[in-house]
Design goal:
84 residues; 434 Repressor (Amino-terminal Domain); 4 helices; 49% helix; globular
């Protein structure tokens, strides 16, 4: 599961726009826009959600779910690569 907030945060961490993410995920720009505009957990076509999550993973983003180990608790995102 991924929330709209996580998606926006992941894009910000990567420094890419919606169009670049859409291309990386093999999705349309309107699909990414709808996902980011949703409230809370993104709902939609399972195939599209899997493409999105896989693209974020490939780009170096780790999604943190509600019950995952995280110092601050709650959902979030973090880069899988160390900061330069």
């Amino acid at each position: 599961m991924i929330t709209a907030g996580q998606l926006r945060a992941a894009r910000a961490l990567l420094g890419i726009d919606q169009r670049a993410l859409a291309e990386a995920a093999g999705l349309s720009l309107p699909t990414i826009q709808r996902m980011e505009a949703s409230d809370g957990v993104i709902r939609g076509n399972v195939d599209s959600l899997m493409k999105l999550v896989n693209a974020l993973d490939t780009l170096g983003i780790e999604l943190i779910s509600d019950n995952a180990s995280s110092q601050g608790g709650g959902r979030g995102v973090r880069s899988k690569r160390p900061a330069p």
